[in-house]
């Protein structure tokens, strides 16, 4: 009688060999990533993955495979376990997040922007309603995060100061962790304001530079038509000189006309940021979101955007750490969108409650309003539309190797609009992603 296997290859284990013979292993359920570059060990591991194990692990390679869940017990129902992990994260009650629009106005008029700039700064009444809302949640939270968005959020600095200062006091009283981040064009972010924001627990920043000066200043134009590149660089240089703790993701959007100019931006940033691990660099191809302002631009189609991103990102890895955005996307639930999570809402400058920041004008995304007592008056049918748009009843998603990372929730908006599985570009480009991450992170 043949020995029964104690371990078999996980259905969520991805194996990739690079051009130089390095073996990369990745498990989407555990999030583990490992590399093996010795030919003899590579062959042994490939054999074990094919054959499994009929006895407990005896050597280092076998332990590597078992301890990181590249091999699992044959009786383990991994699909069910992925569902358990999803539900634990999706329905947790100890963590809460809000995306807040301090203003929906902006001091820029970027050529590809889809925003309509309908409203100015959040009123004091709405600000106070947000604070009351968080106060009601406070006794039940271990952690709370605010993501400031716009428009250009720093054009509504009064709302940011008021809300963050009050919630910082609440967090100290109720002893929950309060973090905050901001997506800003960086133009108003001089070093004095930056220090003030860090003191208000805003330690995560995303700032956009679209290539070197001439390409940036033709894409990201001030409201009055003026340039913005020099001022942003000046602000970054001053911020870099501080000893504060923060993370700044410098995002560079590019289209087909300026992809070849990204190397110049890397060289500019390298002169004053090289080696500073507080700064990360991330390149993002511009995809047309059907906005009127972008209809005539030479933008990328979804099926070609990932390769363009990886081509440019590989230029930066010698000088800047791997973008956490890419690394996080490979972790369990890492490729899901916050719009699909019940404990996550966006609140507009006028108090309108949304789930998605890309569809503010879609009626099914306008869930209701925050009232003066701080309660969210929402349409539960609309709410359910967003939080049930996942892999639960999707055979394609349930059979996919990327299910633990994506859970059918990469973009609930796509599922709602098309009734199709919203597969992330990561799925078709997993091997390229693994090469980028392992090289940059030194795995």
Protein described:
With 443 residues, the protein is an alpha/beta fold. The protein has a domain at 95-329: Aldolase class I (TIM Barrel, Alpha-Beta Barrel). It is built from 17 helices and 15 strands. The protein has helices spanning 39-51, 60-67, 78-90, 124-137, 157-174, 191-199, 213-219, 229-240, 262-273, 302-316, 324-329, 380-387, 395-398, 403-406, 412-418, 425-428, 430-441, and strands spanning 8-9, 13-17, 23-27, 33-36, 71-72, 95-101, 143-149, 177-184, 202-208, 247-254, 279-285, 344-347, 352-354, 366-370, 376-378. The chain has a ten-stranded mixed beta sheet. Strands 2-3-4 form a three-stranded antiparallel beta sheet. A two-stranded antiparallel ribbon has the order 1-5. It is globular.
